Amino acid sequence: MSPILSLAVDISFILVVLGVVAGFIRLVKGPSLPDRIVALDMMTVLIVSFCGLYAILSGDTAFVDVAIVLALIGFLATVALARFVDRQQRRSSTRAGSVAQKSDTPPENAP
């Protein structure tokens, strides 16, 4: 491997690890569920890139297959979590609408 490629891979490893640490901090702190989902997706992408970098460093193509499978699983997990958040928000807005609708109607025993 050329010295420039070796240096670029080493710097990339450091940046990927820093990104995973930053994503983990956002995953723990939140503050909301969508923030945590985006942090988890970012960490998945960074781990896929870590597998790709390791495949370049070692010359073993098996890590590329691992990266592809991990990317597919990460994509499906992100879609599933996004649908969960969407359904949760729809339920809360439906409940808020039904409570507002009930408060607008006068009581039956009112004169």
Keywords:
111 residues; mainly alpha; Helix Hairpins; 3 helices
Describe what this molecule looks like in 3D.
With 111 residues, the chain is mainly alpha-helical. It has one domain (3-99): Orthogonal Bundle (Helix Hairpins). The protein has three helices and no strands. It has helices spanning 3-29, 33-58, 62-104. Helix 1 packs antiparallel against helix 2 and helix 2 (33-58) packs antiparallel against helix 3 (62-104). The model has no long low-confidence stretch (mean pLDDT 87).
What's the helix and strand layout?
Elements: H1 3-29, H2 33-58, H3 62-104
Helix pairs in contact: 1-2, 2-3
Alpha plus pi helix count? 3
DSSP E strands, number? 0
> How does the overall form come out from the CA principal axes?
elongated
The poorly predicted ranges are none
Write the CATH fold name: Helix Hairpins
What is the name of the CATH class?
Answer: Mainly Alpha
Q: In angstroms, what separates the terminal alpha carbons? A: 89 Å
At CATH's second level, what is the architecture?
Orthogonal Bundle
**What is the arithmetic mean of pLDDT?**
87
Taken as a percent bin, the fraction of beta residues is under 5%
Radius of gyration, Cα only, in angstroms?
23 Å
Number of domains: 1
Structural class: mainly alpha
The major pleated sheet works out as: none
The proportion of residues forming helix, as a percent range, comes to over 70%
**Helix-strand pattern:** HHH
Summarize this structure briefly:
This protein has three helices and no strands.
